[in-house]
Amino acid sequence: MKRHLPFLPLIALILSTLACILQMDAPVTLSQDQVNTLAAQTLAFYQYQTYVALGTQAQPPIADTLAPPPAGAETATNTVMPSVTNTLMPSVTNTIFVPSVTPTAIPCNWAQFIADVTYPDNSELGISDHFTKTWRLKNIGSCTWTTGYSLVFDHGDPMGAPASQQLTTGTVAPGATVDVSVDLVTPTAAGTYQGFFKLRAADSIVFGIGTDANTAFWVKVKAVAGGWGVQTVQAQVDVSMGATGHVSVNCPAGSVVVGGGFDGGNNISAYRSERTGNGWMTYGHRYSGANAVLKVYAYCLSGVSASSTSGFTDKSLAPGATGNVTQTCSGGSVVSGGGYAFTDGIIWAYRLHMAGNGLLMNAQNVGASNGVFHAHPVCLTAAGAVTSAHATLGSIGGSSSGTVESACPAGKAITGGGFTISSNMTLTGMYRNPTENNWVVKALNQSGSNLNVFSEAICLGFS
């Protein structure tokens, strides 16, 4: 009896697959006999796989040859497929390696150099020139720097540096920055000089910057014979809420004061900022806020033979009145900077600028009684000295504090400056930018809209 095969769909699949193979592999030509034999062998293999899948352990049946026998042959050739042993692959377990991490402790004392606030590398100064070097450092250690910490000279050219000096008058918490200054003087011979410094903790442990927390930071300047320079010296004082305070600073020996300025933050207004002796002084009133530091700056010329003088004349204003006063330098001198003074709480000063060879000041009496004010120029006498004014107009947004800066031309140095502010504004600072040759005017805008501000730099050069 003829057996019905359950493999007809499978045969169709095989023939379809062969057709695809023949189409994709066009360069190979098979004879009809080769095609028939390949089909029979493939069918036998699939039969065997089916027996295995059904769990049949007996020898699979001999494949029926589907193609007609070759000419002259009486019977089909039976092709027996070899037995196939299934090999099971071993299971694989993936193992993820997670390295252990041991946290590294942050050193107690560790500093990071942020910027040269004054005198970047290779700044040129005159011989025997006094200057103040300031670095900005960040506390990246785990301990707070206190008043027991010091700046110490490590090695190199000392340039008059003290062996050590107090680092800060307050505290510098981890993550905070601090400006560190030291007064220096260039040697008496021309050349390049470099001094290296570190910090010392309260327990006398010396530390520095770098990955080892022990690398020194430095100052590097060039002393040029016959050169001149203007350096900044400063001091500061804390002012309590509602109180007034004053602070002064002197120029180093061998230099002469040519101007000055102040910075009251955002909450201290200076009603007096002018020359005193060979330095500068500022009086200020703290009217609001948490910022209670009043800073004073003196600008000191060295490297040339020079002297400076100053003078003023008070002008009185009645309540509600406005007025101006001009103070002029005498022949043979040039105005190099200046300041002012007025009655606190009564006079509002809104303009101070260079006028001819002197200073002009404008003010208004906003009080209920008479008040006085004056301009206070610094007059420099030095061979070949020439000064000029350079102003910049800017603005400050409503109900905010801001600054406007003006610059000096190349080859000239800022020695002082002036300001012009709009109504509803309070002057809170005017000073030389410590990192650039710019004059900064800082003011508080008490109105709700933008208001204009003029910054005017007084620039010194030599012909």
Descriptive notes:
The structure is a single chain. This protein has about 475 residues and is mainly beta. It has 3 domains: about 1-65, no CATH class; about 110-225, Immunoglobulin-like (Sandwich), CATH 2.60.40; about 250-463, Proprotein convertase subtilisin/kexin type 9 (Jelly Rolls). The protein is built from 2 helices and 28 strands. Helix 1 packs across helix 2. It starts with 7 loop residues before the first helix and ends with a strand. The model is unreliable at about 1-10, about 20-30 and about 50-90 (pLDDT under 50).
Total tally of structural domains: 3
CATH superfamily of the largest domain: Proprotein convertase subtilisin/kexin type 9
Give the overall average pLDDT.
84
What series of H and E elements makes up the topology?
HHEEEEEEEEEEEEEEEEEEEEEEEEEEEE
Radius of gyration: 45 Å
Sheet with most strands: 7 strands, antiparallel
Give me the count of strands.
28
What percent of residues adopt helix (DSSP H or I)? under 10%
Number of helices: 2
> Globular, elongated, flat, extended or rod-shaped: what is the shape?
globular
Q: Which structural class is indicated by helix and strand composition?
A: mainly beta
Q: Give the termini separation.
A: 129 Å
CATH topology of the largest domain: Jelly Rolls
CATH class of the largest domain: Mainly Beta
Low-confidence stretches: 1-11, 18-28, 50-89
CATH architecture of the largest domain: Sandwich
Please state roughly what percent of the residues sit in beta strands, choosing from under 5%, 5-15%, 15-25%, 25-35%, 35-45% or over 45%: over 45%
